[in-house]
C-alpha cells in the first residue's frame, strides 16, 4: 500500500456539509492500490457508544488516484473521524497525525468536523439542477424592433465582424420565446445588456441603463416576466472586473488626470494615462485600452457595483448573475457580492467565468458554480478532436468531479461552445454525428447543460467573431434534424431525474478505446449510456446485474446474457438503456 499517495484534509472538497444533517467524507488513494476504505466516525463526546465503520464507495478515478466517498449523518451535527485502508490482509488506520497498524485507542488525534453550522453550509439554488440553459448574444439573436437599430446596422445574416451591427434586441427575444419553450429551455443566460459602445457590450458605459440598441428597463421587465410565465429563469452578465472607456468615472479621469476624484476607482501606474508600445499606463482587461480594470477594493467602487447587483434583481426580478473575468476580481468583493445577491433573492444563481480549476471560489462563500471549461476541454479532446482515448477522457472527468463538493458539481455550468469559442459544429468539421455524441454526453452528465444560441439549428462559425453570427430564423434554412435531436435530448433530461442528479459510474473506458459506457442511477432509475466514438460500426459489451433493459428513446428492449449487456451501435452511435424493474 503506497501511503505516500493517500490524502485527506478537513473541509474543502474532502470533508464538507452537504446539507443541515449530512457530512460527505472523501479520501484519495493510489489507483488500484487499495481494495476497500471505511470511515470510522462518531461523536467525540460519546465515542465508544457512537463510533461506527462506514463503507466508502469509489467515487471516481483519474490516471493516478482513486477517490472514495461516504455520507455520514451525525446525530449531534459534529463528527470525529478517521479511515481504515485495506488491501487484502494489509490494514492501516489513518488519523490526522499518522498511519497506524492498529485502531487508535482514543479519538483525540482523529480528524474533526466541529459542527454543522447552518450559515456555513454551501447551499446552491435547487432549480439549477433541473435547468437547461440557452446562451443568447442579444445583438445576433433576433431584430424585433428596427427603430432601435444603431447607425450603420447591416441586413440580418451578414458576415459577423468585431465592429459591425445587425440590430438584435430584447423585442426579438420576446418574439421568439416560443422557440425556446418548444425546445425545452428553462433558463437563459444573456451576455451583457447594459449600455456600451461595442456589439458585445463588455465595455460597460452605464451599469444602470439597458443599451438603447436593445430596448429599455420596461422591455427587460416584460421579457423577464414573460420568461417566468413559461418557467424560464433569466441570468444577466455582470462585467465588474472592468468598465468601458466611456464609463463616466473613467471619462472624468481622462479629463482631469491626477485631480480626478475617481483616480482610485482604477489601477493607475502612471500619469498622464495613455498607451505606450501597446501597453496602457493603467490596468485593463488583457491590454485592451477600451476596458480599464476597476479597483474593487475601493469602498466607493464596491458600494456602486454591489448596488448594481441588487438593483437589477429587485427591479426586474432576474434570477442571477454570470460574472465576467471573475478570477481577476478580489475574493473579498465576491464574498460581499454573494451576501448582497442572496439577501435580495435567496435562490439566485451566481456563476463565475473561470476557465480552470476553481476550488477557491467554490467553498460556499462566493460562487454557486463556474463555467465548466475543464469539462469542455475534456469533451472536445475525446469526442471531437480524438486526442484522448476513452480511458483518458474518463480520467479527466473523474479528476474534475473530485475537485468540488457535490453541490457544486450538481449546478456546474457545462458548455461545449460559447461566444468565446468556435462553434461545436465547426469544431466537428461539419460532422453532425460527432456533434450529437458530444451533446448526448453533455446532457447525461451532472450539472446544468447550456446550448449556445443557434447550435440547435446548425449554426457554424470559427473563433470570435465568426461564432457570433446571426440566428437563422428561416425554417427552410434551419437544420430540422438537429433541431429535433435537441428537442428529444432535452425532453429525456427533463423526464429522468437520474440523468440530472443520479450517481455517475464509468462502466467501460479502456486504454486505446473509442468505446465508452457509464451509468446514471438514482432511487427511481438506472440508465446505462453506451457510446461508440468511432467512424465504424461497433458492438459494446458491459457487465450489468440486471437482465432486462429498455431503450428510453426507441422503446426497444434488450436482454443481458450471463451478466453482459451487448449493443451494436453505428458510427458515433449512442444507446440509452434503462433497467426494467
Give an overview in words.
Strand 8 and strand 9 (99-100) form a beta hairpin. This protein has four domains: 3-118, Immunoglobulin-like (Sandwich); 126-234 and 299-470, TIM Barrel (Alpha-Beta Barrel); 242-295, Oligo-1,6-glucosidase, Domain 2 (Oligo-1,6-glucosidase, domain 2, Alpha-Beta Complex), CATH 3.90.400; 499-579, Sandwich (Immunoglobulin-like). With 581 residues, it is α+β, with helices and mostly antiparallel strands. The protein is built from 14 helices and 30 strands. The radius of gyration is 26 Å and the shape is globular. An eight-stranded parallel β-sheet has the order 20-19-18-15-12-11-22-21. Strands 3, 4, 7, 8, 9 and 10 form a six-stranded antiparallel β-sheet that branches. The protein has a six-stranded antiparallel β-sheet with strand order 23-24-25-30-27-28.
Can you summarize this structure?
The chain contains 14 helices and 30 strands. With 581 residues, the protein is of the alpha+beta class. This is Alpha-glycosidase.
- The number of helices is 14
Say which CATH homologous superfamily of the largest domain is assigned.
Glycosidases
| Biggest sheet record | 8 strands, parallel
pLDDT below 50 for ≥5 consecutive residues: which ranges?
A: none
SS-based structural class?
alpha+beta
Helical percent range?
10-25%
Strand tally: 30
Please name the CATH topology of the largest domain.
TIM Barrel
Structural shape: globular
Q: What's the level 1 CATH class of the largest domain? A: Alpha Beta
Pfam families: Alpha-amylase, Alpha-amylase_N, Malt_amylase_C
InterPro entries: GH (IPR017853), GH13_cat_dom (IPR006047), Glyco_hydro_13_lg-like_dom (IPR004185), Glyco_hydro_b (IPR013780), Ig-like_fold (IPR013783), Ig_E-set (IPR014756), Malt_amylase-like_C (IPR032091), O16G_dom_2 (IPR045857)
Domain Glycosyl hydrolase family 13 catalytic: 135-493
Keywords: Glycosidase, Hydrolase
Amino acid at each position: 500500500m503506497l501511503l505516500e499517495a493517500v490524502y485527506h484534509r478537513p473541509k474543502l472538497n474532502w470533508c464538507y456539509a452537504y446539507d443541515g444533517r449530512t457530512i460527505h467524507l472523501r479520501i484519495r488513494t493510489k489507483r488500484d492500490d487499495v481494495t476497500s476504505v471505511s470511515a470510522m466516525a462518531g461523536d467525540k463526546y460519546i465515542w465508544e457508544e457512537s463510533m461506527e465503520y462506514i463503507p466508502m464507495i469509489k467515487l471516481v478515478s483519474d490516471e493516478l488516484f482513486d477517490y472514495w466517498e461516504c455520507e455520514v449523518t451525525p446525530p449531534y451535527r459534529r463528527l470525529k473521524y478517521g479511515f481504515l485502508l485495506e488491501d487484502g490482509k494489509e490494514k492501516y488506520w489513518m488519523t490526522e497525525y499518522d498511519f497506524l497498524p492498529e485502531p487508535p485507542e482514543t479519538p483525540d488525534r482523529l480528524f474533526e468536523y466541529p459542527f454543522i453550522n447552518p450559515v456555513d453550509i454551501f447551499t446552491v439554488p435547487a432549480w439549477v439542477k433541473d435547468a437547461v440553459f440557452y446562451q443568447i448574444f442579444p445583438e445576433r439573436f433576433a431584430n424585433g424592433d428596427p427603430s432601435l437599430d444603431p447607425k450603420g446596422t447591416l441586413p440580418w445574416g451578414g458576415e459577423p465582424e468585431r465592429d459591425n451591427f445587425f440590430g438584435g434586441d430584447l423585442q426579438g427575444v420576446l418574439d421568439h420565446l416560443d422557440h425556446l419553450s418548444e425546445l425545452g429551455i428553462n433558463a437563459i443566460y444573456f451576455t451583457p445588456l447594459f449600455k456600451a459602445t461595442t456589439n458585445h457590450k463588455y465595455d460597460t458605459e452605464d451599469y444602470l441603463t439597458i443599451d438603447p440598441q436593445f430596448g429599455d428597463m420596461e422591455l427587460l421587465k416584460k421579457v423577464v416576466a414573460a420568461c417566468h410565465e413559461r418557467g424560464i429563469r433569466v441570468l444577466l452578465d455582470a462585467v465588474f472586473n472592468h468598465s468601458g472607456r466611456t464609463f463616466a468615472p473613467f471619462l472624468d479621469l481622462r479629463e482631469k488626470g491626477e485631480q480626478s476624484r475617481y483616480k482610485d476607482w482604477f489601477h493607475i501606474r502612471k500619469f498622464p494615462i495613455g498607451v505606450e508600445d501597446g501597453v496602457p499606463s493603467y490596468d485593463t482587461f488583457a491590454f485592451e485600452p477600451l476596458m480599464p480594470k476597476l479597483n474593487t477594493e475601493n469602498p466607493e467602487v464596491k458600494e456602486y457595483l454591489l448596488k448594481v447587483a441588487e438593483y437589477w434583481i429587485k427591479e426586474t426580478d432576474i434570477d442571477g448573475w454570470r460574472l465576467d473575468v471573475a478570477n481577476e476580481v478580489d475574493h473579498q468583493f465576491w464574498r460581499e457580492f454573494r451576501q448582497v445577491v442572496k439577501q435580495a433573492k435567496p435562490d439566485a444563481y451566481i456563476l463565475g467565468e473561470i476557465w480552470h480549476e476553481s476550488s477557491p471560489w467554490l467553498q460556499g462563500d462566493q460562487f454557486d458554480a463556474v463555467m465548466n471549461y475543464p469539462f469542455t476541454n475534456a469533451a472536445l479532446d475525446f469526442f471531437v478532436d480524438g486526442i484522448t482515448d476513452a480511458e483518458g477522457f474518463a480520467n479527466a472527468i473523474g479528476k474534475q468531479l473530485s475537485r468540488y463538493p457535490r453541490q457544486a458539481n450538481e449546478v456546474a455550468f457545462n458548455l461545449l461552445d460559447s461566444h468565446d469559442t468556435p462553434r461545436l459544429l465547426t469544431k466537428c468539421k461539419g460532422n453532425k454525428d460527432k456533434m450529437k455524441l458530444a451533446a448526448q454526453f453533455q446532457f447525461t452528465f451532472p450539472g446544468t447543460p447550456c446550448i449556445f444560441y443557434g447550435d440547435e439549428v446548425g449554426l457554424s462559425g470559427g473563433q470570435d467573431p465568426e461564432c457570433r453570427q446571426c440566428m437563422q430564423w428561416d425554417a427552410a434554412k434551419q437544420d430540422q434534424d438537429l433541431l429535433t435531436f435537441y428537442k428529444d435530448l432535452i425532453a429525456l433530461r427533463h423526464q429522468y431525474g437520474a440523468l440530472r442528479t443520479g450517481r455517475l459510474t464509468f462502466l467501460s473506458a479502456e486504454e486505446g478505446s473509442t468505446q465508452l459506457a457509464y451509468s446514471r442511477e438514482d432511487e427511481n432509475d438506472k440508465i446505462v449510456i453506451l457510446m461508440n466514438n468511432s467512424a465504424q460500426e461497433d458492438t459494446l459489451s458491459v457487465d450489468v446485474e440486471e437482465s432486462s433493459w429498455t431503450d428510453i428513446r426507441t422503446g426497444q428492449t434488450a436482454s443481458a446474457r450471463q451478466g453482459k449487456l451487448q449493443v451494436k451501435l453505428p458510427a458515433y452511435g449512442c444507446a440509452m438503456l434503462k433497467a426494467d424493474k
